[in-house]
């Protein structure tokens, strides 16, 4: 029968979006309805209790904790979760290109399986050199980290950021996904919870609507951004997200 | 073909959840994919520009602005939206039992149509005397306002609130919905974006897990809550939400 999107279950996928008001970070839980195996994407250290209580109540067994990148604005919850669960049952995940420590280091095309479902890795350097996006098996959803935000994108002025590289990543790895693919970012600062590839291709003021790489580089150069408050604490900790 | 939940479109329904960090309020946009007619639930006055820009980019035509009740913590956006759209094209909606002014005053069982879809009203007094929940035509989603929150509920100590009445409303009007029905509340203060009837029946610490009406009345009596900062401004304004 057709998935109805009810109770966060669409076609056998259990799906929950969670939010950290402090850092405006989104955390995602994806579970396979049948096997109850699940993954969590970008958990925040201060909210691990909330997330694990939800996972328990949903009757899910957490297999992997995925980090889209080494964040500069909050500390990942994957090491705390790892310490809370039976040894060996839960693995932290980050891209090999991030240079960070984790149980599983993924590359372009790597698959992270939970039950009969999987997420596939697309490497999208630009915001950081090690950024990765995770595409759901049926191309219905992509978790874009700070690479592509709702009508925006992550900054490119530190952590080995590079505007030309980000532009190429978005156009080659994300804008090639189906138009109707839902975009779930790592952050939003204006209360928007999701977007779609179609919308971002048309309406992203930096990367869509025919903006060229040159336009994008110029736009990013003009941004005057302050340094994230937590960067000196968060980045070193996040480089050791699984230990 | 089966809805995939992609781009917020499930079985022809366009769906977006939006958040106001200031008051922790959720706003919802629902659209009929074919006709492009849409409704907005509990818009916040300060975020009307964001919401209308989203609606424009999604190619939707806004027909109704629904208020679950006269809020005490923020000012509804329905009158601002009404002033921004062509005269007569958009109507504000609230329950007749709220005593508030609006273009459309709904009762138990009233339907609000957008294209081929509709929301149906269930009256749920208790948090306020005029609270209403809106159930999607296929029972896949319910918008619960402050009547039922994720693992919680609205307060019952002012605005004609009454604990016994709230308990009955939840058990008779909401817990009778299908288990898999998704619950979308008006607020969450811990970054949780949705729940399900099944979960709230089992895990709501006040109303679920076998808690009796007597238990609930005692729990609510014990809460020591401060008065919402905006109540003296918001309630009078919200009592005139459509004018
Ligand atoms: Fe980042
Ligand atoms: Fe309220």
Automatic annotation (TrEMBL), chains A, B:
<dbReference type="GO" id="GO:0046872">
    <property type="term" value="F:metal ion binding"/>
</dbReference>
<keyword id="KW-0809">Transit peptide</keyword>
<keyword id="KW-0223">Dioxygenase</keyword>
<dbReference type="InterPro" id="IPR036866">
    <property type="entry name" value="RibonucZ/Hydroxyglut_hydro"/>
</dbReference>
<keyword id="KW-0479">Metal-binding</keyword>
<dbReference type="GO" id="GO:0006749">
    <property type="term" value="P:glutathione metabolic process"/>
</dbReference>
<keyword id="KW-0496">Mitochondrion</keyword>
<keyword id="KW-0007">Acetylation</keyword>
<dbReference type="InterPro" id="IPR001279">
    <property type="entry name" value="Metallo-B-lactamas"/>
</dbReference>
<feature type="domain" description="Metallo-beta-lactamase">
    <location>
        <begin position="24"/>
        <end position="187"/>
    </location>
</feature>
<keyword id="KW-0560">Oxidoreductase</keyword>
<dbReference type="GO" id="GO:0050313">
    <property type="term" value="F:sulfur dioxygenase activity"/>
</dbReference>
<dbReference type="GO" id="GO:0070813">
    <property type="term" value="P:hydrogen sulfide metabolic process"/>
</dbReference>
<keyword id="KW-0408">Iron</keyword>
<dbReference type="InterPro" id="IPR044528">
    <property type="entry name" value="POD-like_MBL-fold"/>
</dbReference>
<dbReference type="GO" id="GO:0005739">
    <property type="term" value="C:mitochondrion"/>
</dbReference>
<protein>
    <recommendedName>
        <fullName>persulfide dioxygenase</fullName>
        <ecNumber>1.13.11.18</ecNumber>
    </recommendedName>
</protein>
<comment type="similarity">
    <text>Belongs to the metallo-beta-lactamase superfamily. Glyoxalase II family.</text>
</comment>
<dbReference type="Pfam" id="PF00753">
    <property type="entry name" value="Lactamase_B"/>
</dbReference>
<dbReference type="InterPro" id="IPR051682">
    <property type="entry name" value="Mito_Persulfide_Diox"/>
</dbReference>
């Amino acid at each position: 029968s057709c998935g109805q999107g009810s109770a966060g279950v669409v076609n056998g996928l259990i799906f929950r979006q969670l939010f950290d008001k402090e850092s405006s970070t989104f955390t995602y839980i994806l579970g396979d309805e049948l096997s109850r195996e699940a993954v969590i994407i970008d958990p925040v250290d201060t909210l691990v209790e909330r997330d694990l209580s939800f996972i328990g109540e949903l009757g899910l067994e957490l297999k992997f904790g995925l980090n889209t990148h080494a964040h500069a604005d909050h500390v990942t919850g994957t090491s705390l979760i790892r310490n809370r669960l039976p040894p060996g049952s839960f693995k932290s995940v980050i891209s090999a290109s991030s240079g960070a420590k984790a149980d599983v280091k993924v590359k372009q095309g790597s698959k992270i399986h939970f039950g009969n479902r999987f997420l596939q890795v697309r490497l999208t350097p630009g915001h950081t050199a090690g950024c990765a996006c995770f595409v759901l098996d049926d191309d219905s959803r992509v978790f874009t980290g700070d690479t592509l935000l709702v009508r925006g994108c992550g900054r490119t002025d530190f952590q080995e950021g590079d505007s030309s590289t980000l532009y190429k990543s978005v156009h080659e790895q994300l804008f090639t996904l189906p138009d109707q693919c839902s975009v779930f970012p790592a952050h939003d600062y204006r209360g928007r919870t999701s977007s779609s590839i179609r919308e971002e291709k048309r309406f992203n003021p930096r990367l869509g609507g025919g903006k060229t790489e040159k336009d994008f580089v110029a736009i990013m150069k003009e941004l005057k951004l302050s340094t994230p408050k937590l960067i000196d604490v968060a980045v070193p900790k996040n480089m050791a997200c699984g230990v």
